[in-house]
Amino acid sequence: MHDSRIFTRSMLGIGLACLAMTWCFAGDEASPPAAEVALPTMRGPDGQIVNLTAPRGGISALIFYSSECPISNAYSPELNRLRSEFPTESVKIVGVCVDHDLSSADLMAHAKDFDLKFPVVQDRGGAIATTLGAAVTPEAFVVDERGRILYHGRIDDQYAARQKKNANPKVSELRDAIVAVLEKRKVAIAHVPAVGCPIPKPIPTVTAPTYAGEVASILQKNCQECHRRGQVGPFSLETYEQARKRASDIATIAEERKMPPWKPDPHVGPGLKNDRSLSTDEIATLTAWAEAGAPLGDPERVPPSPNFPEDWALGTPDLVLALDEDFSIPADGDDIYRCFVLPTNLPKDVYVSAIEYRPGNRRVVHHMLGYVDVSGEGRKKDKAEPGQGYSCFSGPGIEIDGDMGGWAPGNEPSHLPEGLGRSLPSRADVVVQIHYHPSGKPETDRSRIGLHFSKKPVRQILHWNAAIKFDLKIPANDRNFKAEAAWPVPVDLQAWAVTPHMHLLGKNMSMSLKFPDGRIQELIKIGDWDFGWQNSYFFKEPITLPKGTVLKVVAHFDNSADNPRNPNHPPKDVAWGEATTDEMCIGFIAVTKKGQDLTRAGEKDDLHDLFKAQIKEFEKKMKEQEAKNRKQASK
């Protein structure tokens, strides 16, 4: 299907160059002048005529969108609701797609996939976006029948910034503007900056660092694990054209170190495995390439695409655990945290050397975490709730007997070092928590976990312990509340990994060690905490922890109304708890017992029992302190 355009005005090109100054409302001397634009009549991808001009006495709401922008897609249900709220004879809503490389069939498929209830057109040359001044997707423009732009900007306040969804949205500027115009009132706020994905720039002619020469290999190594067809990345970066149209955005995100997702401060702590951060030289190359206009270079020099495993990266697992049936994720709404109980039915105890997570639907699976349950409590919680699994937020909500690692976008599975293993008792259940992020259309998921059993003798078992601030209390309206926690090492250990953990009020967290001789060693610092990008960070080399070493955690929280992630509106005092509206301050650390050799006759793994005893002693002291505080308060 061709993309011929039909215009209602006899103007060169698409008729958007004509601008004239008029008043917003007749007789309103205080109103500022608004620009008039001539909107074209176009053919939609299905061949139907779509006149962008507003109906008589009404308005056109033009929504610039991209099929590859997750924020844009997430607004599909809200735009459908707006379409159903207002009469078609006075309010015309049209989606203007900025993806000029999509075919008409692709555009129609996307509209059908997201069940768009309004017509769409394609701004292939970018002329409409350029003339109206659209900069991101999604961005809305309310235009009256005379071509006056009465409002432009965001649809509502669901997003405070990219990757920051507002926990308490309360303003709908687009709807308010439409209502005001229909009621012959002045639009209260004519512009609110939109939050979303930058609109691609026109094809450049400048040359410099080239895609073929340098950029393709950077994207292949660091980005394509997620940004390829069918993966969690909202758009693909597998071809030159896919990268070219997003060159400026790629450079900006790389410079801000928002992508690839890697939260640890590169200047703090020992070397970490699977570091996905870009080097300074790589960032500089991407920036120079974007500034030069994203040239292709010699297409013969583009390196061949890497081969990504389509199934299990580590080979066929010894045991595959999977959801019993498809789990349904709605088109919109809050993120979903769901725990699923997966029985292992193992006849005997085993050691696990590697765990591979296979998200069933990478469009909606944000991350996965696994836990070992030998108590059957997970099954009870599952049975108590309708449907598959049970609701959970911070963790499984039960006492666990060990962990089964986890997955986040870009994580690569690997075997533990030789001689190390995770304990998986016979008949144990694996409880997997899955974080789902609605995509803008109904989805389903049936994720799997592949377990690889240790083939060689296991000498040491990997355990997790933590420095925890159980008596956490964060005052309302405190923008920078400080919390500290510590854990004394009871025996000689070796540390292998750390996992910082907070909820939605978290700002930053650092973990460090204080050795018995007074030395301090920094382990990790997350300067910009994001609950959605939690991870376990493994050291390149284990760290010896002599008995008496203290693991320290320092964290800061923002419990003010200015924190867009704050789930409480207005802010209120927040204490320790499992719920979304509660908080936590935990610095987990993965350890093995130094010198442990379970292959020796009579040797037993006693770390788990030792750690449990520590926790009980800590809880006892907390209760004694609480009783003492109550007694003093009663005097």
TrEMBL record:
The keyword 4Fe-4S does not apply. Residues 28-183 form the Thioredoxin domain. One of its GO terms (molecular function) is copper ion binding. It comes from the Bacteria. Keywords: Coiled coil, Disulfide bond, Heme, Iron, Metal-binding, Signal. Residues 1-26 form the signal peptide. InterPro entries: AhpC/TSA (IPR000866), Cu2_ascorb_mOase-like_C (IPR014784), Cu2_ascorb_mOase_N_sf (IPR036939), Cu2_monoox_C (IPR024548), Cyt_c-like_dom (IPR009056), PHM/PNGase_F_dom_sf (IPR008977), PRX-like1 (IPR047262), Thioredoxin-like_sf (IPR036249). Residues 608-635 form a coiled coil. Residues 208-294 form the Cytochrome c domain. PANTHER family: OS07G0260300 PROTEIN (PTHR43640), THIOREDOXIN-DEPENDENT PEROXIREDOXIN (PTHR43640:SF1). This is Redoxin domain-containing protein. It comes from Singulisphaera sp. Ch08.
